[in-house]
Amino acid sequence: MKEQAKQDVKKLVERFRYNIDVYKKSAYNETQVRREFIDPFFEALGWDVSNKQGYAEQYKVVVHEDTIKVGGSTRAPDYSFRIGGQRKFFVEAKKPAVNIKEDVSPSYQLRRYAWSAKLPLSIVTDFEELSVFDCRLKPSPNDKAGVGRIAYYTFEEYLDKFDAIYDVFSKDAVLKGSFDRYAQSTKGKKGTAEVDSEFLKEIESWRELLAKNIALRNPDVSIYELNYAVQKIIDRIIFLRICEDRAIEPYGQLQTKAESGDVYTHLLNHFKLAESKYDSGIFDFDTDRITPGLSIDDRVLKTIVQSLYYPKSPYEFSVLGVEILGNVYEQFLGKVIRLTAGHQAKVETKPEVKKAGGVYYTPQYIVDYIVRNTVGKLVEGKTPDAIAEIKILDPACGSGSFLIGAYTYLLRYHLDWYTNNKPKRYKEAIVQVRENEWYLTTAEKKRILLNNVFGVDIDPQAVEVTKLSLLLKVLEHESRESIDQQVKLGLEGVLPNLAGNVKCGNSLIGPDFYDAGQQETLFDEAEMRRVNVFDWDDDVKGFGRIMKRGGFDCVIGNPPYIAFQEGSKAIKDYYKRYRSAIGKYDQYILFIEKSLSLLRLSGFFSFIIPNKFIHSDYGKGIKGVILEHQIIEIVDFNDIQIFTGATNYPCILLIRKSTSPNAFEYKTVSNIHVSEILSKSILVDQNALSNSTWLLIDRKEVALLEKLKNDKTALGSLSLTITQGLRTGELKVFFNNIDFEFIKKNNLERELIRSVFHGKNVKRYAHLLDKQRDLILFPYIRDFKTPVDIDKFPNALDYLRQYKNELKERKDSGKIFKNTNKIWFEYWDSKPICFESPKIIFPDISNRNNFYLDLDGIGYLNTCYGIFLRDGLNYQYILGILNSRVIEFFIKKISPFVRGGFYRYKTRYIEQLPIPTIDFSNSAEKAQHDKLVALVDNMLELQKKYHDARMERDKELYERQMKIVDAQVDRLVYDLYGLAEEEVKVVEGE
After folding, report:
1. What confidence score (pLDDT) does residue 483 get?
2. What is the pLDDT of residue 731?
3. Pick from 437, 439, 440: which is nearest to 51 by CA?
């Protein structure tokens, strides 16, 4: 494929070289070079440039975008290259007479479009030259032609540099992820500023300008009215400005209004004209009695409007997708306007956002995955009439990303259905724009939106943003002509009013909140707005009609991850009504329970949520609720971080409301490739799960776990105790002036100074080095079993008390007591068991079994656990079993995954480990026991020799020998558990 592509490009190069003088003349135009050279060049790279496959518009891999205008004159990029309907890069074509390398205009034009569309790379070419630009650099009209250029080729270099071009920009390279990897490798250069973060700064500055000015000029405006007014004005300006760049509204109208005096009056008149045309909630002045009466200075509005136009504006709104806008608004909603006592406006981060460390927008591929597996399954094979009855809900919709995703899926499905079923019969639903190219009519897009898409959010600003985004989606592919035609025909408003679809309220708290002794809060306005009760059964204010039919068909979203401690006592008391409100739960737990109650039978539910409910104690309640329905799949991202700037461990939970649980897929994600979730899957028996324990393993593994436990003794029964190490205080200091001579002279070394280990120090069988140890001080000792007279060490006590008192008075103790020995400084009134021996030590979190035998009385801290066996048991025998692959397999199936391949090794899991007990009267069993003990002794000796070795070749020799012994231990342990060859393969992951 690649070699053939190179040959095709070679022919183009030779033809161009032969006639270059003709092509360089200005008479040879852009259309000709596109048809004769640029189109075949990208065809050679595997792209169906001319749509020979005959795909509908939404499925074309190359879209010609030359119908869009910028600034009333300049054209948009000529090509948009796409995978699965998602843009990957633009190509701007020029005629060969243009100097691509030196001319500023083509590069700025391309970069402005690609930056606004959030595309990392794009190309300008006239075939004679080809420039690749990093389009994450914010474009400026003052930029030189080379700004952002990361590659430049002349046609004479295409063959020599063919691999570099093909391996990034061919269709095959994009599908395999090479394009994304190359884009990532060029990221992070100085000046990189992605469009969403820049536009966020822009609208945040507008909010501050408007808020301060409105508060100053309108002293009667309340804090709630101020937030409402600022949001409304910004939404209206953005909506109309986007319509201008999409050629739905005449370009420059807002700019014209801002150039006159009394700007706000002119803008209001413009908004009211828009009301008569669009008739949507954005311009609903029947319900908006605040913004028409405001006074706003011209200076403020001019600053805002002028920043949206060329040359000041780097934004091209025709390609700024609603998904990008949603990301911007999601961050924008993380702040709120406050009023000071002097009626001055201040913008502050919301407390819940500050506590969470920011706002995290759901990546588009997550939205698409959830929508495809819920909405997609609901509508599959259905007619538009049948789909009209389907109700889709996001109960915490935020800026509307999931509702936009669901609506986009429905639009595509309907268009496909109509075009595949004699489209000319459905003139009210679709319109033909070109041969084999159809669009849904505005009326049909409105019908789908009003019938199918519903949302709730506690934040009134979020509700308005969701409506704005959905309405902009309705206007996609519309033109001024199509809109004007609808107005002339006297049709109802071009856009739907979404007041009945997207509502403001608290999805978790109903009006019964005030039935339980909360009547006094009825008169507390701040509390009333904070609680914001929502009545799902109300026909007007809620979704009573939907609930009367049995509920919603689909609930999707990304609910808040707020901890239960947030909120007033009254709210927390109300939450106790939920079965899932157990322990220190997060709010998303309640949203799962509530959402399942809002579903009708056979409805689909899917959230992106943290995975910790699966393993945590507080998850018992919600697991009980979930198990009453049918789990379809759980997609666990393990330690792959999907939210930019956040460290959490999410999963996708997909449920069908059904009383017939079965087996479900448990998918563990290995990678995100070209926005595709790559995972491996096992089948889990839901009937085998309980409220307390979810072993997400397949049936073959379940059977093996049962066999491993059969006729074995749990380690907890063989142990005196399995205990966590010392919990050190927060007081950590570095000393260089401890009076070691005093300690030695008084024979107090053993009593005062001990070695201790952290979990990170403990490795399987490893000989632990002195340098890995920390030192710890005791004030006095009591025998573990029999207390002794503490007056035996009065000097030691005085010595330590002196240092304790000094440290209390010295805040800069870290500077005064500089490093030589690290000391963990704590008082104990008894000798901790962690210093006893023998014992087996292991870390609390590990990526493999790391069990170590201590015979020297080394202590361990709370990042370790110790196993103390009953008399008569051989420590080496138990150690060999614990470090075997069998036990590692067992632990990793019952213990929760943490991150980066690490698991928790806590007492509750370790005490379950099945240990084969030995009948010493049976010579065969005794021989197995003794052989394992001998192997472990050999391993311990090899470990010591390895660490003591001073030559690298000796270390290699011992390391090879340890691997051989390790394999022998595993084979012997397989025999002890009676595993067949097929079962060994399961243990070893084959």
Report:
1. 76
2. 30
3. 437
According to the model, what pLDDT value does residue 728 have?
54
My answer on whether 219 and 177 are in the same domain is no
Q: What is the pLDDT of residues 168-215, one digit of tens each?
A: 999 999 998 899 889 888 775 555 678 888 899 999 999 999 999 999
Both structure tokens of 814: 């870290």
Residue 857 burial (C-beta neighbours within 10 Å; 0-12, 13-18, 19+)? middle
Closest CA to 915 of 983, 989, 973: 973
What length is written for the chain? 990
pLDDT score for 566: 66
Beta-carbon contacts of 698 under 8 Å, excluding residues fewer than 6 positions away, are 666, 682, 683, 684
| 479 or 891, greater pLDDT | 891
Q: How many domains does the chain contain in total?
A: 4
301 plus 411 within the same structural domain? no
Q: Which of 882, 916, 950 is the last residue of a domain?
A: 916
For the chain, first and last CA: distance in Å?
Answer: 34
Least confident of 48-52, 445-449, 775-779, 955-959: 775-779
8-state DSSP, 542: S
63 with 202, same domain?
A: no
pLDDT of the residue at 1: 84
pTM, entire model: 0.82
Compute CA distances 690 → 370, 597, 611, whole Å: 26, 20, 17
* Percentage of the chain exceeding pLDDT 90: 53
pLDDT at 967: 95
pLDDT for residue 796 = 46
Two structure tokens written together for 191:
């000046």
User: When comparing pLDDT for 2 and 779, which is higher?
Assistant: 2
φ, ψ of residue 93 to 5 degrees: the values are -100, 140
Asked whether the beta carbons of 47 and 120 are under 8 A apart, the reply is no
Asked if 883 contacts 765 with a C-beta cutoff of 8 angstroms, the reply is yes
The type of residue at 6 is: K
Band the pLDDT of 326: cuts 50, 70, 90.
confident
Helix, strand, or coil (residue 167): helix
Evaluate whether residue 803 is within a structural domain.
yes
Residues 212 and 240 in one domain: yes
Question: What are the residues facing 432 on neighbouring strands?
Answer: 438
pLDDT tens digits, residue range 278-320?
888 899 898 899 999 999 999 999 999 999 998 788 888 888 8
| Residue-wise DSSP of 852-920 | EEE-S--EEBTTEEEEEEPTT--HHHHHHHHTSHHHHHHHHHHSPB-STT-EE--HHHHTT-EE----T
Residue 735 lies in a domain: yes
Assess whether 290 and 415 both reside in one domain. no
280 and 350, same domain (yes or no): yes
- Encode 214-247: b = buried (16+ Cβ within 10 Å), e = exposed: bbeebeebebebbbbbbbbbbbbbbbbbbbbbbb
pLDDT of 141 higher than 80: yes
Number of Cβ atoms within 10 Å of the Cβ of 209: 19
Of 307, 109, 124, 302, which Cα lies nearest the Cα of 198?
307
Range of the domain at 174: 2-185
Q: Which residue has the tokens 């080496």?
A: 876
* 663, 684 Cβ separation under 8 angstroms: yes
CB 203 within 8 Å of CB 332: yes
Phi and psi at residue 602, to the nearest 5°: 75, 5
DSSP 276: H
- Residue 524 contacts residue 571 (beta carbons within 8 Å): no
Q: Long-range contacts: 644-647, Cβ < 8 Å, 24+?
A: 644/360, 644/361, 645/357, 645/358, 645/360, 646/357, 646/358, 646/360
